[in-house]
Design brief:
Layout (H helix, E strand, L loop, with lengths): L13 H20 L5 H9 L5 H7 L54
Helix pairs in contact: 1-3
């Protein structure tokens, strides 16, 4: 199954994706950007599931700094084996085109935006 039709209610999991992103982003910024937590606390948070270690690992790589979720970069989850539409920079889209990921509800997470 490539994309979840909206009549199945897949948008009901979008708040979960947002919460996962927000918690992971907070931990990432507190450790890597602000340096306000110790490595031990950082590793504890990831070990206890408070943050998504795989998502944080992607944020550390160039081009993925604003990635919304891991499903958006997995070609097997999208038509034509590409990445999600939310990964396309806004300047490359048609003017006025509204972008919304079917997996997590993201409106654009390309690092070039």
């Amino acid at each position: 199954q490539l994309a979840c039709p909206l009549d199945l209610g897949c948008h009901s999991v979008w708040p979960i994706f947002r919460l996962n992103h927000q918690r992971s982003r907070y931990i990432y910024e507190m450790y890597y950007k602000k340096e306000e937590i110790s490595r031990e606390l950082y590793e504890f948070c990831l070990a206890e599931g408070w943050g998504d270690a795989a998502l944080i690992a992607k944020w550390k790589k160039g081009g993925y700094e604003k990635l919304c979720c891991l499903r958006c970069i997995q070609p097997k989850d999208h038509n034509f084996n590409t990445t999600c539409i939310c990964r396309v920079p806004k300047h490359e889209l048609e003017d006025g085109k509204i972008v919304e990921c079917v997996h997590c509800g993201c409106h654009g997470c390309a690092s070039g935006d």
